[in-house]
């Protein structure tokens, strides 16, 4: 059953919230020691919330959209009374003193927060190997990385440890692990979901979004957390669609007449076995009535350097609050190599004599990339292609920074342009999941979710 069907079972009291929590508690006990997806869980609190929901249902009281569903939260999103460490020794003793806006909304909809998931330290990574608490293993391809930086959230879904999770996506940190773990991940339009309560990596790029095993889970979570937040400066006032009413339709009807843009450069930078899977997926959608339009994007080589220059500067700025005075440790004294590298690079580029040479040029390049992405999307509904250009490496393998950054080449564009993007499983290469990425126009998040749902339905 999908998430919407499970939600209805709970609301109809055919499955109790308590039973749902207990089942996931058992799975976490069994699997988490090997996978390391969850860094902290609170079964007692989850069980208490479940009993409260069951009582309200029994009394005929109204409950929220997420009632009884078990949820994991990435460890850089504030949840009151949980450790919000960002997987770093800098904040290993920092207890959340408030709920992020997305967490408030989950609680208002009666979602049950089970615990905090693993991640790359301060979200600076693409493999979840830089976590202070050790790497996360990939449940779909044991021994390989789950992707990052939201690897724990993706792995928790892939291992069946909870119903839904939240991650953050700055340059692909939701879509990358969704691809490697064979689950669904969604980065909303920039500003569609409040960032209030998220520990910054790069504030002009960061966006919170959901993971699930199916499109109905993505839809249900997104409609629960999206919408304007007066406390958050990047938040947009927009009419949030009822995403969950748009899924479960006939895939053939959804895709009929939909124009899919296929960018040749996306295929050219991707390993051939992955391209083969993606081409087969596109053929399937064509058979369902979608129209394929071939496109060209000449600025793909500009995307990674533009993204990382902006990332370095904004991350350096964001980390100045971790000075060890009010809470935590001074970040430079305890952090890992990649975090320190980004701080040093950001500090260097931020200096007056270098700002014009690097950062301002990166902002100009970003404007150009955004303009070109807008042009690509002008006459199509979606851009469709690979999520990640290569398969995940083995946990513990040593990669040079540029090799690690190469995982992000196809995902950073959506963050630079502020557009919505999702990833879902397209197939496997030698047993390793491969993700299909769909990108759309700003605030056309619903169109991506409908297409993801349609693709899921034709591949059941």
UniProtKB/TrEMBL annotation:
Query: What cellular component GO annotations does this protein have?
Result: glutamyl-tRNA(Gln) amidotransferase complex
Q: Name one GO molecular function term.
A: ATP binding
Reaction equations catalysed: L-glutamyl-tRNA(Gln) + L-glutamine + ATP + H2O = L-glutaminyl-tRNA(Gln) + L-glutamate + ADP + phosphate + H(+)
Q: What class of enzyme is it?
A: ligase
Q: Which residues form the active site?
A: 74, 149, 173
Give the Enzyme Commission number. 6.3.5.7
Which controlled-vocabulary keywords does the entry list?
A: ATP-binding, Ligase, Nucleotide-binding, Protein biosynthesis
| Record has Nuclease as a keyword | no
Instruction: Please give the InterPro entries that the UniProt record associates with this protein.
Output: Amidase, Amidase_CS, Amidase_dom, AS_sf, GatA
GO terms, biological process: translation
Annotated Amidase domain residues: 19-448
Role description: Allows the formation of correctly charged Gln-tRNA(Gln) through the transamidation of misacylated Glu-tRNA(Gln) in organisms which lack glutaminyl-tRNA synthetase. The reaction takes place in the presence of glutamine and ATP through an activated gamma-phospho-Glu-tRNA(Gln).
Quaternary state and interactors = Heterotrimer of A, B and C subunits.
Q: Which family does it belong to?
A: Belongs to the amidase family. GatA subfamily.
Q: What is the protein name given in its UniProt record?
A: Glutamyl-tRNA(Gln) amidotransferase subunit A
């Amino acid at each position: 059953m999908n998430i919407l069907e499970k939600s209805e079972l709970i609301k109809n009291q055919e499955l109790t919230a308590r039973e749902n929590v207990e089942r996931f508690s058992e799975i976490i006990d069994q699997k988490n020691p090997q996978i390391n997806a969850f860094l902290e869980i609170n079964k007692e609190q989850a069980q208490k919330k479940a009993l409260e929901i069951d009582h309200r249902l029994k009394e005929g009281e109204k409950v929220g959209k997420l009632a009884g569903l078990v949820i994991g939260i990435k460890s850089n999103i504030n949840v009151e009374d949980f450790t919000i460490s960002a997987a770093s020794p800098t904040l290993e003793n920092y207890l959340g003193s408030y709920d992020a806006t997305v967490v408030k909304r989950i609680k208002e909809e009666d979602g049950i927060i089970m615990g905090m998931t693993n991640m790359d330290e301060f979200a600076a990574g693409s493999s979840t190997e830089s976590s202070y608490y050790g790497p996360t293993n990939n449940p779909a391809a044991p021994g390989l990385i789950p992707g990052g930086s939201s690897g724990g959230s993706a792995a928790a879904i892939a291992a069946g440890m909870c119903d839904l999770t939240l991650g953050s996506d700055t340059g692909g940190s939701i879509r990358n692990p969704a691809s490697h773990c064979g689950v669904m991940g969604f980065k909303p339009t920039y500003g569609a979901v409040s960032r209030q309560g998220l520990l910054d990596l790069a504030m002009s790029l960061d966006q919170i979004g959901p993971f699930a095993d199916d499109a109905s889970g993505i839809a249900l979570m997104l409609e629960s957390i999206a919408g304007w937040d007066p406390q958050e400066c990047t938040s947009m006032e927009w009419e949030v669609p009822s995403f969950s009413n748009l899924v479960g339709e006939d895939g053939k009807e959804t895709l009929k007449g939909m124009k899919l843009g296929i960018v040749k450069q996306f295929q050219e930078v991707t390993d051939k076995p992955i391209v083969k899977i993606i081409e087969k997926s596109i053929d399937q959608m064509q058979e369902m009535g979608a129209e394929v339009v071939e496109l060209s994007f000449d600025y793909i080589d500009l995307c990674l350097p533009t993204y990382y220059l902006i990332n370095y500067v904004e991350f350096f700025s964001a980390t100045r609050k971790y000075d060890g005075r009010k809470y935590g440790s001074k970040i430079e004294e305890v952090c890992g190599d990649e975090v320190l590298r980004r701080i040093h690079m950001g500090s260097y580029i931020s200096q007056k004599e270098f700002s014009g040479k690097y950062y301002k040029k990166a902002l100009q390049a970003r404007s150009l990339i955004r303009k070109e992405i807008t042009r690509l999307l002008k006459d199509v509904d979606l851009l469709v292609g690979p999520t990640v250009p290569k398969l995940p490496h083995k946990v513990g393998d040593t990669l040079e920074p540029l090799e690690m950054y190469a995982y992000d080449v196809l995902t950073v564009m959506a963050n630079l342009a502020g557009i919505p993007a999702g990833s879902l499983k397209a197939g496997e290469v030698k047993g390793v999941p491969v993700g299909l990425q769909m990108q759309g126009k700003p605030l056309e998040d619903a169109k991506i979710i409908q297409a993801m749902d349609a693709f899921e339905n034709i591949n059941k």
